[in-house]
Amino acid sequence: MTLEDLSASGQIRRHRTSSKEITDYLSLIERDLRECETKGLGLDWRFSIAFNAILQVANAALAAVGYRTGRKAHQATAIESLQCTLDLDKKTYRLLDTFRTKRNVARYDMTGTISEEDVHRMIMVANDLFRSLVCWLKDNHPHLMS
Question: How many other C-beta atoms can be found within 10 angstroms of the C-beta atom of residue 108?
Fold first, then answer.
């Protein structure tokens, strides 16, 4: 799947970004990476916050290449787009897609489905993707970095 394929299917649409928008995304990601480490916060919430950081990584990368997600299935599309923007490997994509489903169950259907191991893994992946995003932006879109 390419960005052009995602665009043709309506999953993403054209978007003009700015360095302010990218800076705002980076701030959101940093906030979420701090907050998901909060001890005493439930596992479900920590997991959800770390997942949100990953969604913002995906949104920032999409914005940098001139797109944003469409209205339908935007979380799944955002995760899928990481394969095109940050060259996310298929194994990590499958993990994130599985975690996306787990997050939805934990958020909307039942509690107690998220383990401590899930949280640690999600936080680790979120931090790795954030570092990848920053390096990728510096290398490929330095004009968007403040």
Answer: 7
Q: Print the domain residue range for 127.
A: 3-144
Query: Considering its fold, how many domains does the chain have in total?
Result: 1
Interatomic CA distance for residues 78 and 56, integer angstroms:
9
Q: Where are the alpha helices (DSSP H) in 1-146?
A: 3-8, 19-35, 43-64, 74-85, 90-108, 116-140
What is the Cα–Cα distance from 55 to 49, expressed in whole angstroms? Answer: 10
pTM for the whole structure: 0.92
CATH number for the domain that contains residue 50: 1.20.120.330
Confidence of residue 102 (pLDDT cuts 50, 70, 90): confident
Mind listing the pLDDT tens digit for each residue in 2-50? 999 989 999 999 999 999 999 999 999 999 999 999 999 999 899 999 9
Pair 45, 122: CB distance under 8 Å: no
Which residues have C-beta within 8 Å of that of residue 103, sequence separation ≥ 6?
Answer: 47, 48, 51, 114
73 φ, ψ to 5°?
50, 40
